[in-house]
Design a protein that fits this description.
The protein is α+β, with helices and mostly antiparallel strands and about 110 residues long. It has two helices and five strands; from the N terminus they run βββββαα.
Length: about 110
């Protein structure tokens, strides 16, 4: 099947003299997003050839720890939802969601 359309997601990282992120912006033309600020990001891609995930985790100097905890919690919840969509494994999804609740409780997010 031929590719009918391509879409680009762009991440721009502003680094200080020590190569520590100071700014993060992202754009996704198809989503109507252009140079939106962010304080943190996590990107994972699957390398099928080597059967491993590759990742980039970045956060700016301005990312407060309390917001990082919320960011992690929301990312874990989203991963559980995505796992369900991808695998239809209800039992493991429920286990993952239980962990998300435990995580939020221990960090006093709820």
């Amino acid at each position: 099947m031929a590719i009918a359309h391509t879409s680009e997601i762009k991440l721009t990282v502003g680094l200080d003299e020590n190569r520590v992120p100071e700014t993060l912006t992202w754009s996704a033309e198809d989503g109507g997003v252009e140079n939106e600020d962010a304080k943190a990001m996590m990107l994972s891609v699957w390398d099928s050839k080597n059967r491993e995930s590759l990742k980039i985790d970045l956060w700016t100097k301005e990312m407060p720890v309390d917001e990082m905890k919320i960011f992690f919690h929301q990312t874990l919840v989203t991963m559980a939802d995505t796992f369900m969509k991808a695998t239809q494994d209800e039992k493991m999804t429920a286990t993952m969601k239980d962990f998300c609740e435990y995580f939020a409780e221990k960090l006093e997010l709820k």
